[in-house]
Structure prediction request, 125 residues.
Amino acid sequence: MQAPLLAHTPYRGVDTMPTTIVGWTCSTPTQGVWEVSVQDDTKADVLKRLNFIDGHLAGIRRMVEGDKYCVDVLKQTYAVRRAIEKMEGIMLTGHLATCTVDGIREGREAEVVAELAALYEMAGK
Prediction:
């Protein structure tokens, strides 16, 4: 059973993108846009982490509103940052194992490399 659509990634001019690997599925493009859906277990893990992050941020807000000690607040913000990085790692691993590999196999090396380079540049800012 395929999970609902989570993200769209544009890969124009390619007719097929196969398979499920590491909990991700890439399907045939609709109007030139690949539909990438996360399998149930991976999606559940990402959503669980997002719920944790949401709750943690609400707690940090309460700490700031309650004039809690700055170091204690900062420790909590670092924990949120680590949780976001872990979630990003899960999503990136899935993308690298599926869409990136398939794109290279299909001869779209330049497009795949450009997309990853832009992501790397964004992550460094």
